[in-house]
Amino acid sequence: MIAIDGQPILTAAQMHAAEDAAIAAGTSVTALMQRAGEGIAAAARRLSAGADILVLCGPGNNGGDGYVAATTLARLGHPVRVAAGAPPKTDAAIAARAGWTGPIEPLAETAPAPVLIDCLFGTGVTRPLAPEIDATLALLSRAARLVIAADLPSGTDADSARAPDWATDHPVTLTLALGALKPAHVLHPAAAACGTIRLIDLAIDRPDTVAVAGGPTLPQPGAASHKYTRGMVAIVTGAMEGAARLAAVAALRSGAGYVTLYGGSGQGGPDAIVHRPYDPEALADDRIGAILIGPGLGRDDEARARLAALIAADTHRLVIDGDALHLLDPDALRDRRNPVVLTPHAGEFRALFGTPDGALIDQARSAAARAAAIVVLKGATTIVASPTHARVHPAGNPWLSTAGTGDVLAGTIAAQLAQPHADPLAAADAGVWLHARAARIVGKSFIADDLANALTPARAGA
């Protein structure tokens, strides 16, 4: 079993194409099924503590994986039973069924077991389960103390992340993604139904244009570093200075060497924050690595004018967040030379882009293409997308649902974007990762100020 950090995410069609390519290169379907079934068996044997195992097998190749797993467990002397809802239909599944020498119980009549392995249906499912199968799975899963899903809980739509009722009401313990992760492993509601997710490697080539975020490689200061080479962040503020100060503290504590607030009263926050009046000419300073606009900006005519001036000037990298997203025409960004990062939550995303076609990851990439920008779509799963790539952060923290945490994220991203020669997608990805790490450090019932301060130990440990 492999942890999912950094692992590629494939749609159902991409997964089938990857398997077809492996078969064309000389790996048989039977060999892939053997790898999957043996991986499932190894995980179940490791976690079951010797308890009886019930394997549910469907008619397709997912069921074939189950027959291989059951055969492997029996060969190792582990107590195992098999139940099936229908006979196997594919050649590989029929061959796997032939390797099982024990009885096969009817699915509707089988008795529960302490450990349940669900191999009924895999990534090919696009319709909800029949009610009687959903009810049987619900009964068997509730009676088990350990439930393992092979690839996905049966009835899950791999691409849309629609989850079946039985697993929504009673999430499985462990989902073993076969060969690659699917969107349903990281997008809700299915991600919650999958429980803990681990990968079984099938030794096939997989595109990594979309992947789970891994730990970033962050720049470290050297002997010749100074405050400007560490990255200077300028924050354009307005009516609500507290939000801008939170972003400024976050930028400093996540690695920026110099942070200046332009606008506001010129007071408040740590002494390390530099306060200056709003001045478009000062914002042309070529030492500035990135400009953040949105936290504390307001939505009046003056705020609109400040945003328009920054977009038109096109002198620096921009992070556009909060209030500024409500004033933005994303099509106005298309002709810019300097990169832009947009940080909408779901409501702001819909206001900016409507509902593009496809599942959530595809929507984020479509929005990034339209705006010619990096889009950070915030939520229970946060997606960092360019027009061609995406990095997915599935471990959302519900304690982040408090005022100001988005301002902290914007400042964190701006600090990464301000680094010399920073790749915009990697910078946004690193900012989201640091923000999540800081949230884990502060734990529960924190305020945004705590989160911003926790970026120092988060950055130190990275």
TrEMBL record:
Domain of life, per lineage: Bacteria
InterPro entries per the UniProt record, alphabetical: Carbohydrate_kinase_pred_CS (IPR017953), CARKD (IPR000631), Nnr (IPR030677), Ribokinase-like (IPR029056), YjeF_N_dom (IPR004443), YjeF_N_dom_sf (IPR036652)
Residues annotated for AMP binding in this entry: K378, G379, A380, T381, T382, G406
Binding locations of (6S)-NADPHX: 61-65, 122-128, 151, 243, 296, 345, 407
EC number: 4.2.1.136, 5.1.99.6
Reactions performed catalytically: (6S)-NADPHX + ADP = AMP + phosphate + NADPH + H(+); (6S)-NADHX + ADP = AMP + phosphate + NADH + H(+); (6R)-NADPHX = (6S)-NADPHX; (6R)-NADHX = (6S)-NADHX
Cofactor: Mg(2+); K(+)
Gene3D superfamilies hit by this protein: 3.40.1190.20, YjeF N-terminal domain
Biological processes annotated in GO: metabolite repair; nicotinamide nucleotide metabolic process
Cofactor remark: Binds 1 potassium ion per subunit.
SUPFAM superfamilies documented for this protein: Ribokinase-like, YjeF N-terminal domain-like
Residues at which K(+) binds: N62, D118, S154
Domain YjeF N-terminal: 15-210
Family, similarity comment: In the C-terminal section; belongs to the NnrD/CARKD family.
Name of the protein in its database record: Bifunctional NAD(P)H-hydrate repair enzyme
